[in-house]
Amino acid sequence: MDSADPEPNGAAPEADWDETRIMTALGRLQDIHIRLRNLRGTIPELIRPILSMHSSPEDLYTDIAQCATTAVENLNHFKQRMAEQESQDVLKRAKHSRAQNDEGITGWLVTQHEDWLDRNAQTDLYELKLGDGDDVSAKNVDDDSAEQDINTTILKFRSNNPKVGVVLDQHPDFEWNEQLNLQGAKEMIIATIDLPPPTRMQFKVVAIPIDQRKVTYKVTGKQVSNLDRGIHQCIEERPHPNDLRSLLDMIASYNTIKFQVCQKCNKLIGPQASFPIVRSKRSTKNADGAIFDEWLSFHTECAS
Q: Residue 221 class from Cβ within 10 Å (0-12 exposed, 13-18 middle, 19+ buried)?
């Protein structure tokens, strides 16, 4: 086959790539490498519950089950990422380029590139551009509270997170409808979220009407430790306060707070003896074309 001919699956290694596509490809390669590197911690995380103290056999079982679930999810996300056509095209082009000219290409250590493990530095900028003009970051899919029915949103969240305790609090003076026409409603608790062990945290989601169609949300709860206070501060400082779906998903992401490592330093405990409490949401497209959100974790000092 002539090297200039298109390869199977529509990939054409000799075609010129503009700067945006090259940067997108680099971001994808970086993401794949980080995911693969993070899989090294799978077995240590699976055995960690066995080596830790638990207050009851039930807590031990829950911890083991959560670690197993997270391990499966991480492995599936990596396999899914590798199977995507864009990933295959990028790897084909890299292989072709190296075959044409491998001068100066040598092995290197990830520690030689201080920003390599910081997905925010590059990946977030380009991976949200999903093609066909569909930029999730620009559209901010979930940010218009007028499009979110509160009841439906909370019930769907409960269905998608069976291990998270969700109590829907309804009030007689709170009119639930698709337009969020909150006639006569004042600030009030709309849901109580209980994260199971080992997190053991409770959040109360409060709705605050802005006008007849829009609502903003805040979260209250006990803040007895630095970890509690840090998490509540991160939630309070989230970028889209009118987005209920994103808020609920962000709260659920803290269910992994005690075993999900920081995306930048790849450690659970940071330089200041803290857990990775900072959250950053990234939307990506899987092999089937469906968009899914992934919450990345960072230590406060790694995110600054």
A: middle
Lookup: tokens for 220: 């209250």
Q: Is 208 exposed, middle or buried (0-12, 13-18, 19+ CB in 10 A)?
A: middle
- C-alpha distances in angstroms, 225 versus 203, 221, 253? 14, 12, 19
E strands, the chain, where? 165-168, 188-195, 201-209, 215-220, 278-285, 291-298
pLDDT of residue 76: 87
| Amino acid occupying residue 134 | D
Q: Which residues contact 136 (CB under 8 A, 6 or more apart)?
A: 128, 130, 283, 291
Handedness of CA 166, 172, 176, 180 (dihedral sign): negative
Distance CA 154, CA 156 (A): 5
Question: Measured between alpha carbons, how far is 221 from 13 in angstroms, rounded to an integer?
Answer: 55
H or E segment and range at residue 235:
helix 226-236
| Tens of pLDDT, residues 100-111 | 887 777 777 766
* DSSP symbol at 280: E
> Residue 108, by phi and psi: left (phi above 0), alpha (psi -120 to 50) or beta?
beta
The owner of tokens 């945006």 is 20
| Confidence at residue 277, expressed as pLDDT on a 0 to 100 scale | 93
Any idea which of 102-106, 157-161, 271-275 has the lowest mean pLDDT? 102-106
What single letter denotes the amino acid at residue 14? Answer: E
Element (H, E) at 87: helix 85-100
Q: Summarize pLDDT for 274-296 with one digit per residue, the tens.
A: 889 999 888 777 667 677 778 88
The two structure tokens encoding residue 117: 């493990």
